[in-house]
Amino acid sequence: MKVLNIVGARPNFMKIAPIHRAFMKYRDISSKIVHTGQHYDTRMSGIFFSQLEMPEPDYFLGIGAGSHAQQTAGIMLEFEKVIYKEKPDLVLVAGDVNSTLACALVAVKEHIPVAHVEAGLRSGDRRMPEEINRIMTDSVSDHLFVTENAALVNLKKENVDESKIHFSGNVMIDSLLYYFPEIRKLNIPESIGVAPNAYVLMTMHRPANVDGTEGLKQILEIVKELALHKNVVFPVHPRTMQHMEIAGLKKEFENIAGLKMLQPQGYLEFLNLTLHAALVLTDSGGIQEETTFLQIPCMTLRETTERPVTVESGTNYLLSRPDRKDVVKLAEAIFAGNAKKGIIPALWDGKAAERIVSVLREKYINSYVCGN
Ligand code: UD1
């Protein structure tokens, strides 16, 4: 059985690493990695390969930055050549980035089955590029691996054949648990001069929050206010940095006493910062899950979440109208020890990749050997 695993952007690496590792346990599986190059710098890509012990990709498509159409179409043209050469039995994609959709589309048109890991999540907000990527990828996938019950419900509502859906758990948590001893050993707060458990960790990069001056100004006001209470540690995504510069707000951010702006962090470093945060403020998808697992309070500055279990059972709060006063009021309650106590969702147990590989082996190897 030959599988091509697709990685492209930062959130893919920690999802594919445990799956590739699980495939590699079997001699009858050839597991190859295709990197589209959607993310290309050391800080957004290279460091994840080394920290997550992933081999050099078998193919690097070198696509880089561009508009959605340029990125998606560019990946499709290059990935088609790989498909012709490799003739895989399966293409495995994860998450909701442009690379996910582009490769799924190429595969399905060449009649290659597609497995989608982290299927069925829906924010209900079609203005998010990721939502379009999720819907389209699920609709062409043959095997849909879900992380939470809401995703099951969504797929059933969309009339997806139930035999295609598998509740496998969360591969992102597989990586977190696998590397937890190393994450715990680090002491990043000390190395950047903030006291553990007494700072707010912030990430912000969604187009709706950072692509316009108005959104960035709102974030600026929130940070100014929070930094009066606690240090704010902010690893800045390249997209956010570009837009701060375009909006002429970079200096204003830099001038906030108590705000520490950092380069994008490595996987282990970022999770060490998460582990020791008093509060995480984010608009990321994956960080909502990682904070729920680590039981760290998280405030998500978005109107919707495609990961409702993190709000319903976990430690996540959704701030639908990110108003400075609401954010600060809730933050104060959390600092005073009144954060909700979450529980860890079902099957977020470090074994999701093994479950995924065993479903796929059953379909592609065992049933073939038995002549079914
Ligand atoms: C992408 C994903 C988003 C994911 C995020 C994680 C889509 C539609 N979006 O958004 O779902 O949460 O990755 O990071 O796929 N850049 C660099 N260095 C890099 C990568 C990007 O400087 O290594 C710059 C690019 O030049 C570009 C900007 O960052 O101008 C945005 O990159 P892009 O991949 O288009 O989207 P993200 O905002 O990162």
TrEMBL record:
Listed name of the protein: UDP-N-acetylglucosamine 2-epimerase (Non-hydrolyzing)
Organism listed in the record: Dyadobacter sediminis
Signal peptide: none
Domain annotation UDP-N-acetylglucosamine 2-epimerase: ranges: 25-361
Documented EC number(s): 5.1.3.14
GO molecular function, one term: UDP-N-acetylglucosamine 2-epimerase activity
Keywords associated with the record: Isomerase
Transmembrane segments: none
Family statement: Belongs to the UDP-N-acetylglucosamine 2-epimerase family.
InterPro entries tied to this protein: UDP_GlcNAc_Epimerase_2_dom, WecB-like
First-level EC class: isomerase
